[in-house]
């Protein structure tokens, strides 16, 4: 079920902000910070979880666990009618951390994390063989300065 921001109120956003700061924050602490009951915090959290607005994951620092090759890959698809099929095939690959359809010079924008440059080369070679991939252009990220979730305060 897809929800939009209009279904969220200020309390929902406040709970989400608390959890972005500390994903392990207890319902008791959330309730105290937001001056609501523990039951209210728990109920709201469960609704956010059930509606797919929030999910529980362990977020790792890619560099600290061994990912040494990050890249942005621009993918050109010909004919354009194959874009969805190409996107689905690329999306299924575990190296992909971000994938979007774009306007402009290329059709798909792909961000990948690989353990090594050799792995990255193999990955680029793999996607180059997908039916409909006309061309790729890879840009390496030498150093990542910020890797973050969106700032919910921007929606206020």
UniProtKB/TrEMBL annotation:
Entry superkingdom: Bacteria
A single GO CC term, please? cytosol
Q: Answer yes or no on keyword DNA-binding.
A: yes
Q: Name one GO biological process term.
A: response to amino acid
The record's Gene3D superfamilies line, in alphabetical order, gives: 3.30.70.920, Winged helix-like DNA-binding domain superfamily/Winged helix DNA-binding domain (1.10.10.10)
What keywords would UniProt list here? DNA-binding, Transcription, Transcription regulation
Q: Check the record and name the Pfam families matching this protein.
A: AsnC_trans_reg, HTH_24
Q: Does the keyword Cytoplasm apply?
A: no
Q: Which GO terms describe its molecular function?
A: sequence-specific DNA binding
Q: Which InterPro entries does the record match to this protein?
A: ArsR-like_HTH, AsnC-type_HTH_dom, Dimeric_a/b-barrel, Tscrpt_reg_AsnC-like, Tscrpt_reg_AsnC/Lrp_C, WH-like_DNA-bd_sf, WH_DNA-bd_sf
What positions does the domain HTH asnC-type occupy?
Answer: 8-68
Q: Where does the record place a coiled coil?
A: none
Quote the protein name from its UniProt record: AsnC family transcriptional regulator
- Its source organism is Spirosoma radiotolerans
């Amino acid at each position: 079920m897809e929800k939009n921001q209009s279904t969220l109120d200020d309390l929902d956003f406040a709970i989400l902000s608390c959890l972005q700061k500390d994903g392990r924050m207890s319902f008791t602490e959330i309730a105290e910070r937001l001056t609501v009951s523990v039951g209210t915090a728990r109920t709201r959290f469960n609704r956010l979880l059930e509606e797919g607005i929030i999910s529980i994951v362990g977020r790792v620092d890619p560099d600290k666990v061994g990912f040494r090759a990050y890249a942005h890959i621009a993918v050109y698809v010909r004919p354009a009618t194959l874009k969805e099929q190409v996107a689905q095939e690329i999306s299924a690959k575990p190296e992909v951390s971000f994938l979007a359809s774009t306007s402009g010079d290329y059709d798909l924008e792909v961000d990948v994390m690989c353990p090594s440059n050799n792995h990255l080369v193999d990955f680029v070679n793999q996607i180059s063989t997908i039916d409909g991939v006309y061309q790729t252009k890879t840009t390496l990220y030498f150093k990542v300065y910020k890797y973050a979730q969106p700032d919910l305060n921007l929606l206020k």
